[in-house]
Every structure is written in structure tokens, then in C-alpha cells.
């Protein structure tokens, strides 16, 4: 008999629920408190790029890549269909991540001036690893001449690196939130106890919750119906 402690539908529900909260919080922060994203050289173009960065990296990169991980848990159909949808969603997430970094480095200060913090270093490494993972998946999906045993050996590493990169993306976002909030509070632009601080801190907590649920859904065993074999005997029914 197979027993599952966490039914797949409940894990998927909590994953989608936490993802919706993350999306709402980052939209409120980026659009309602957009004055916090104005640089020392304010311009309409610079403000748009600054606001697009958290939207693309959180909603476009983290949320979509998380949904791509969950594809194998909820999408019906053949395995090739699931792999194709997974590959397409990861491609959209990669495009959002690359464009999100480009918006950050598109300011008047240039690339070098923005490449100084742990957040920026981790972001570049994360997107580079994500791109390598996507390229491997693309080649593996369209070029199927590899020996099956070789593909089976590589698959666990692909899954591990995929989950590691996803977790690294969440940690990178957390460092970005901490860096931004600390900078605003140090400059006196944001108080330690105010709605914006609460939203940023809540966003960080929800991102941590989301990553834990997505990884749990990815590593938990697939739902199986428990079966028992009924054997007829002259005296009674026995289950074994």
C-alpha cells in the first residue's frame, strides 16, 4: 500500500497561492512605492527600467520558472508534451531574467558601477547557470540520439542543478530586497516601521515560503493509487 503524506493537489494549491501573494506584493511595491526606485539622476526612462527590474526578476524569472518546475506535477498528457511545456516556460523565464539584468545595467552609471554587490554577483551567476541548464534541456529534447543509459545518468544532475538554480534565484532576490531596503532606510527615505518596509519584508518571507513549497512538490513522490490484491478462498476473502 502506498501512503502519501502530502497530497499533490494541496502542495500545488499552496504553491499557486504563495505565488499569487508574491506577485501582488511585488506589484504593490514597484508601482505604488515607485518613488523608492528613483536614482540620483532621475529620469522617466531610468524610473521605468528601475521598476521593471524587480517585476521581471520576481514575476518573470522566479514565478515562471517555478511554474515550469511544477509542470510535471499537474499537466496531463505525454511525457514529451510536459517536457516541451517545461522547456518553453523556462525559456520565457530565461528571457525575463536576461532582460531584467539588462534593465538594471542600462542606467547612466553603466555596467561596472552596478557590478559591486553580492546581489549583483549572485544574479549574474544564477542567470548564467539557468541559461546553461536551458541550453542542455533544449539540446536533450530536440536531439534524441543519445544512449538511453547516458540520458538516465545525466537526468538526476539536471534535476539537482535545476532546483539548485531556482533556490539560488530566490536567495538572490532576498539579498536584493535586503540591499534595497537597507539602502532606503540608511538614507532616511523609508522608515523602519512603515507600510513599504512591511511589504518588502513580507515579500521576502513569501518568496521563502514559495521556494520551499515548489521544491517540496518537485521532490515528493508522484501520486499513486494504493492497490490491494483480493484473493478468494472457500472460507473468506483475504487481502494481501
From TrEMBL:
Domain Cytochrome b561: 14-219
Full protein name: Cytochrome b561 domain-containing protein
Superkingdom, taxonomy of origin: Eukaryota
Species whose genome carries this gene: Rehmannia glutinosa (Chinese foxglove)
Transmembrane segments: 12-31, 51-72, 84-102, 122-142, 154-178, 198-219
InterPro entries listed in its UniProt record: CYB561/CYBRD1-like (IPR043205), Cyt_b561/ferric_Rdtase_TM (IPR006593)
UniProt topology in membrane: Multi-pass membrane protein
Requisite cofactors: heme b
Keywords: Electron transport, Heme, Iron, Membrane, Metal-binding, Transmembrane, Transmembrane helix, Transport
Location of the protein in the cell: Membrane
Amino acid at each position: 500500500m502506498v501512503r502519501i503524506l502530502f497530497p499533490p493537489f494541496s502542495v500545488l494549491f499552496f504553491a499557486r497561492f504563495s505565488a499569487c501573494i508574491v506577485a501582488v506584493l511585488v506589484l504593490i511595491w514597484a508601482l505604488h512605492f515607485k518613488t523608492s526606485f528613483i536614482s540620483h539622476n532621475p529620469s522617466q526612462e531610468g524610473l521605468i527600467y528601475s521598476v521593471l527590474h524587480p517585476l521581471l526578476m520576481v514575476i518573470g524569472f522566479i514565478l515562471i520558472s517555478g511554474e515550469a518546475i511544477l509542470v510535471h506535477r499537474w499537466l496531463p498528457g505525454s511525457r514529451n508534451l510536459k517536457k516541451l511545456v517545461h522547456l518553453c516556460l523556462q525559456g520565457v523565464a530565461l528571457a525575463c531574467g536576461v532582460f531584467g539584468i539588462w534593465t538594471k545595467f542600462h542606467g547612466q552609471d553603466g555596467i561596472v558601477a552596478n557590478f559591486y554587490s553580492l546581489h549583483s554577483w549572485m544574479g549574474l551567476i544564477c542567470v548564467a547557470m539557468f541559461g546553461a541548464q536551458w541550453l542542455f534541456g533544449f539540446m536533450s529534447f530536440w536531439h534524441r540520439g543519445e544512449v538511453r543509459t547516458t540520458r538516465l545518468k545525466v537526468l538526476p544532475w539536471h534535476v539537482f542543478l535545476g532546483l539548485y538554480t531556482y533556490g539560488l534565484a530566490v536567495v538572490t532576490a532576498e539579498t536584493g530586497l535586503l540591499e534595497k531596503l537597507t539602502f532606503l532606510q540608511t538614507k532616511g527615505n523609508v522608515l523602519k516601521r512603515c507600510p513599504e518596509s512591511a511589504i518588502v519584508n513580507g515579500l521576502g518571507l513569501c518568496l521563502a515560503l514559495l521556494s520551499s513549497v515548489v521544491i517540496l512538490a518537485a521532490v515528493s513522490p508522484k501520486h499513486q493509487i494504493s492497490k490491494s490484491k483480493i484473493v478468494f478462498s472457500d472460507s473468506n476473502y483475504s487481502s494481501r
